[in-house]
Amino acid sequence: MQSADTDLLPIGARPRAANPPDFEPDMFRNVLGQFATGVTIITTRSEEGGLAGLTASSFNSVSLTPPLILWSLANKSGSLPTFQTNTHYVVNVLSSAQVDLCLRFATAKGDRFEGVPYRLNAEGIPILEGALAWFECHNRSRYVEGDHVIFVGEVERCGFNDASAEAGPLVFHGGRFHSVDPLE
Description:
Low-confidence stretches: none
Oligomer: single chain
Shape: globular
Order of helices and strands: HEEEEEHEHEEEEHEE
Radius of gyration: 18 Å
CATH architecture: Roll
């Protein structure tokens, strides 16, 4: 009998090729939609100094030491060049009271920051007022995988907003926005 450890590949070894998908892309999207995710707005500055930001639900922690997070952006996104060349960005975790802000940053029309309250961090990148939490990140590395680029950020500073905690997090599940209540 083999132990589970002998079935693991050594670090750096390449696994055998994957089998082709046995489902249609729409099915994959629908199944992914069953996983509830938080909603964020990633903010940065372009090389020319303009503010840039977009809505993303593909956010996750990677490591506590060093403190690393990740998020991903579609290859076809108009914001991709800005995020590939910047040195820093902020991941703003939205509260359930910020659905309108989420929708604003999900569209490519107009100045997304017009009338939006924010403060600038040490690198001059917006931290959105009312965000539930934020992670100020150095753009550590990027990996092209499939039709997205995975960004790994090293967290330099982070914080949370006690006042926004009452609203709770904004959650996306099954193609709709939700808030959450604690289970008793």
